[in-house]
Amino acid sequence: MLSYLIFTLTLGGIYALLALSLNLIWGGVGMVNLGLAGFFAVGAYASALVALAGVPLPIAMLLACLIGAAAGLLATFATIRLRGDYLAIVTLGFAEVVRMVALNERWLTRGSDGVSGIPAPFRAELGVDGFNLLYLALVSVIVLGVFLTLRRLDLSPFGRVLKAIREDQELATFAGKSVTRFKMQTFALSAAIAGLAGALYGHFQTYISPDHFQPLITIYIFLAVTAGGVGRPVGALAGAYLVVFFLEATRFLGELFTVLEPGQVAAIREILVGLALLCVLHLRPQGILPERIAPAPKPETSV
């Protein structure tokens, strides 16, 4: 039971990074990125392949961030003039392109067989239980560091410019802000965080395949950010852990309802995810921890 709890917390930390990544681009600058699973996959494959080539793990994870950021810049060039539904469709297409490349380019990604034997830090020396505890600590420290960085960024002048772009892009342009530059920087940083999450996932599982990066992951993260509170890093963090525990709790439906087959249990789990999203949108449309809007300063009155 303890091992399962450690696994759940570790997976929650990885999902928390994805939620922070999405919250930065969606809650910060207002760009709907449905290609999150694609950047997640880019980071996982990049780190796994270079680590298998003999590159030390810290450098492999750093490369995953850089390659993820480069992929984010590439996606930004294709979507910079798009908004709303059009942006969502193009980014979703990007994620599917990444998954199809991973599925078909066997020379690079080993196709549907996946990449196995991905190095894991100190797994042989510590054993499974020791490695899981170490990895949970590593993921937790990284999540805390990213959260504090994004929280500080959110309160900085850069974060205020992002919110101004989110609320009124034309007004921000009129105020002299380079909207294109801010969008590119934000998208690259968001993709780098998603790439880091992918690297951590690959080295934790020691095996990845295209099936691990289905669009459903993006739906889970959207549910996490929506449930936690769009635009607030602590909301994204809380929402991610809630979603992971919800998903893991529904795994036991087969034990409660023994008449159900595994395929039916999987289908019911996805239905419950959709119902949970509808309930959150109906009951708490602003999320559990909604964004705090600073009150406008009162005008000075002369005596």
From TrEMBL:
It is found in: Cell membrane. CDD domains: TM_PBP1_LivM_like (cd06581). It is a multi-pass membrane protein. Its main location: membrane. Keywords: Cell membrane, Membrane, Transmembrane, Transmembrane helix. The keyword Transmembrane applies. This is Branched-chain amino acid transport system permease protein. It comes from Rhizobium paknamense.
